[in-house]
Design goal:
Layout lengths: L3 E4 L21 E5 L2 H5 L5 H20 L3 E5 L10 H12 L3 E5 L4 H8 L1 H5 L3 E4 L8 H8 L7 H12 L3 E2 L2 E2 L30 H14 L15 H14 L1 H4 L19 H6 L4 H13 L5 H25 L27 H13 L4 H15 L3 H11 L5 H12 L16 H7 L20 H12 L1 H4 L6 H9 L2 H18 L1
Parallel strand pairs: 1-2, 1-4, 2-3, 4-5
Antiparallel strand pairs: 6-7
Helix pairs in contact: 2-8, 7-13, 9-12, 12-13, 13-17, 14-15, 15-17, 15-19, 16-17, 19-22
The protein binds flavin-adenine dinucleotide and iron/sulfur cluster.
Length: 508
C-alpha cells in the first residue's frame, strides 16, 4: 500500500475529522481499534463501553459503504494486542503505508502514547489539531496568558463575540450576556418533563451488547435499557427532539431535581457531542435558530448555548493548559476513600440514592446531581481526588478525561484550589431541599444538623467549613459562611463536628 494509514479513535467519529481531510479512497486505509486497554483503564459503565464500540462499528460501516478501505479491529479479534500503539504497529506491518495521519486525542494519557508512534513505527506520523471545537488550543492559551484568573464567564463572552452566536451587532442578544437569574426554579407539581426519544438497538448494537455483557458484566451499571444514539443520523434526531420538546423549558428548570425524574429538560446530547456524532456548532446553531424563529425563549437558549460554547470549550482549554500537573492537585488535602454507596451500597440519603441509582441504570445523571449531590458530598466528606475522579470517569457514558477532570477536580471538589471556580461549590441540605423534592421522602430531616435524624449534608457542611476555616479566610467569597460559623455557639459547632466524625467513621 502506498497510501496513508488514517487513525480514528473511538471519540473521533466525525466525518469532518481532520485525520480524514484529503482522504484518498483509492489508496488510504482508515484504522479503528477496539482495545482492552481503553475498555479497562477505569471500570467503565457497561453502557459506556457498548456506546463507544457500537458507534465505532457504525462509523466503520458507513465509511466502508462509501467505498473507503477500513481496518476495524474488533475487541474479540484473536490477534488484538489490547493497546492503541500495538494495533497501529500491527496495521503498519500488515499494510505498509507511506505514513500515518491522526487527530490529536482528547486525553493526555493517549497523547503521551501517540507522541512515541513516529519513533516506534519508523514512519512519518502527522498529528493534526482537533478542529471540531469552537476554540483552538492555541487561542485558549493566548486568552489565558497573563490573566490572574481564568473565569469562564469572560471566556464565554469572548466566544460569543468570536462566533456571533446570540449577538445583535456587537451586543449580546436581549442586552444581557447571562440569564441565569431566571434559571433557578423548582419543578412545579404537575409538570411532567417529556420523555427523551427512544432508540431501539439494531443488530450491531445488539451484538456489541452481548460482547459487553460477557466481558464487562461485572462492572457497576446496568446494560439493559441502553438508549444512546450510535450514529450521526440518530444523534441528529435526538437533537431535534430536544430542541422541539425540552429546550423551551431548559433554562427554567436547569438546576432542578425531582424524585423519579431522571432527565428533566436536559438535552442528553453530551455522549453524541463527545463522540463526534454531533458538532458543537451544529447544536448551538439549532438552538439559536429556535430562538430566532420564536420556538424557544432567550433565557433557555442562552443558558443552553453557554453550556456548550462556554463551559465545554472552557474545560477543554483548561485541561490542555494545565495537564499533566492538574490531575495531581489536591488543594484541600483530601484523602478519604470513596464510600461504598457510590458503587451502589445502600444509603439512607434519598438524594444520593436517586443520583447514584439512576447513574447505575442509565450511565447518566444531570449536572446538578453531579455537582451538588455526589460532587458536593465528596467535597464535604473530603474524598481523595483520584478516587472521585476515577468514579466520574467510569460511571457516565459521556465521560472522557478532558471534560470530566476539570469538572470534578475544579468545579465539584475544588482540588485545584480555585483555578476554575472562585469558591468551592459547598452546600448544606437547604440547597438540595430548595432545588428538589428528595428531602420529603428521606429518612433524614433536612432541617436538623445534629441528632439521630440529622441530614448529613448539614453537619458535613459545617465540619467542612470549620476544617478549612483558616485556608478560606483570605477568600472574600467565603466570608459569609465563615462569619455564620464564627457566630455559632462553640458547643453547637462541636456537636455537629462530632456528628460528622461519627458519620464518616461509620461510612468507612
Ligand atoms: C463532577 C462533574 C463531572 C462531569 N463529568 C462530565 C463528563 O465526563 N463528560 C461531560 O460531557 N460532561 C461532564 N460534566 C458536565 C455536565 O454535567 C454534563 O455535560 C451534562 O450533565 C450532560 O448531560 P446533558 O447532555 O443532558 O447536558 P445539558 O445539561 O442538557 O447541557 C447541554 C450540553 O452542554 C454541555 N455541558 C453542560 N455542562 C457542561 C460542563 N460543566 N462542562 C462541559 N460541558 C458541559 C454538554 O455537552 C451537554 O450535553 C460533569 C459535571 C460535573 C459537575
Ligand atoms: S434530607 Fe439531606 S440527605 Fe435527605 S434528601 Fe435531603 S439533603 Fe439529601
Amino acid at each position: 500500500m502506498s497510501g496513508m494509514l488514517r487513525v480514528v479513535l473511538g471519540d473521533q467519529l466525525s466525518r469532518s475529522l481532520s485525520a480524514l481531510d484529503g482522504l484518498d479512497a483509492a489508496q488510504d486505509t482508515v484504522l479503528l481499534m477496539e482495545v482492552m486497554g481503553e475498555c479497562e483503564y477505569v471500570p467503565h459503565h457497561p453502557q459506556k463501553i457498548a456506546l463507544v464500540l457500537s458507534a465505532m462499528r457504525h462509523f466503520s460501516a458507513a465509511l466502508a459503504a462509501r467505498g473507503v478501505a477500513v481496518r476495524h479491529i474488533r475487541l474479540d479479534d484473536p490477534d488484538n494486542t489490547g493497546t492503541l500503539t500495538g494495533e497501529v504497529l500491527r496495521a503498519v506491518a500488515a499494510l505498509r503505508p507511506s505514513g500515518v495521519v491522526a487527530t490529536e486525542p482528547g486525553e493526555y494519557r493517549v497523547a503521551q502514547a501517540m507522541a512515541g508512534w513516529e519513533a516506534a513505527l519508523g514512519l512519518p506520523v502527522e498529528i493534526r489539531a482537533d478542529d471540531r471545537f469552537f476554540c483552538s488550543l492555541p487561542w485558549f492559551r493566548q486568552w489565558a496568558s497573563g490573566r490572574k484568573q481564568l473565569r469562564m464567564e469572560f471566556f464565554y463572552r469572548e466566544m460569543r463575540r468570536a462566533t456571533s452566536l446570540l449577538m445583535e451587532a456587537d451586543q449580546p442578544a436581549g442586552g444581557q450576556w447571562n440569564f441565569d437569574a431566571e434559571n433557578r426554579q423548582r419543578l412545579p407539581k404537575g409538570l411532567n418533563p417529556p420523555k427523551p426519544l427512544q432508540f431501539t438497538p439494531d443488530a450491531i448494537t445488539t451484538e456489541v451488547m452481548a460482547l459487553v455483557a460477557e466481558r464487562f458484566g461485572g462492572n457497576f451499571g446496568r446494560l439493559e435499557g441502553f438508549n444512546w444514539p450510535v450514529t450521526a443520523a440518530e444523534a441528529a434526531l435526538a437533537l431535534a427532539d430536544f430542541i422541539t420538546h425540552r429546550l423551551p423549558l431548559f433554562g427554567d428548570y436547569q438546576d432542578a431535581m425531582a424524585e423519579g425524574q431522571d432527565t428533566l429538560f436536559h438535552a442528553l446530547l453530551s455522549t453524541s457531542l463527545n463522540l463526534g456524532l454531533l458538532l458543537p456548532a451544529q447544536v448551538c446553531e439549532a438552538a439559536e435558530a429556535a430562538w430566532r424563529e420564536g420556538r424557544a425563549p432567550l433565557n433557555a437558549v442562552e443558558g443552553f448555548i453557554r453550556q456548550i460554547l462556554g463551559w465545554r470549550e472552557y474545560v477543554r482549554g483548561l485541561y490542555w493548559l494545565k495537564m499533566p500537573g492538574y490531575a495531581a492537585l489536591n488543594a484541600l488535602g483530601a484523602s478519604r476513600p470513596l464510600p461504598a454507596m457510590y458503587w451502589g451500597a445502600p444509603t439512607s440519603m434519598a438524594c444520593m440514592r436517586a443520583a447514584i441509582g439512576q447513574t447505575e441504570r442509565l450511565a447518566y445523571a444531570h449536572h446538578i446531581q453531579r455537582l451538588m449531590v455526589t460532587g458536593n458530598f465528596a467535597l464535604l466528606a473530603g474524598v481523595a481526588p483520584e478516587a472521585i475522579n476515577r468514579w466520574y470517569l467510569a460511571v457516565y457514558a459521556d465521560a472522557f478525561e478532558w471534560v470530566e477532570l476539570p469538572n470534578t477536580h475544579g468545579m465539584a471538589i475544588w482540588a485545584d484550589g480555585g483555578i476554575m471556580a472562585s469558591k468551592p461549590y459547598a452546600a448544606s441540605g437547604a440547597y438540595i431541599n430548595r432545588m428538589g423534592d428528595h428531602c420529603r421522602g428521606c429518612e433524614h430531616d433536612v432541617k436538623a444538623a445534629t441528632g439521630p435524624k440529622a441530614c448529613p449534608f448539614n453537619f458535613l457542611y459545617w465540619d467542612f467549613m470549620a476544617r478549612h476555616a483558616e485556608s478560606f479566610a483570605t477568600n472574600p467569597r467565603m466570608a459569609m459562611p465563615l462569619n455564620t460559623l464564627r457566630k455559632m455557639e462553640p458547643a453547637r459547632v462541636a456537636a455537629m463536628r462530632a456528628e460528622a466524625a461519627g458519620f464518616l467513621a461509620r461510612l468507612a
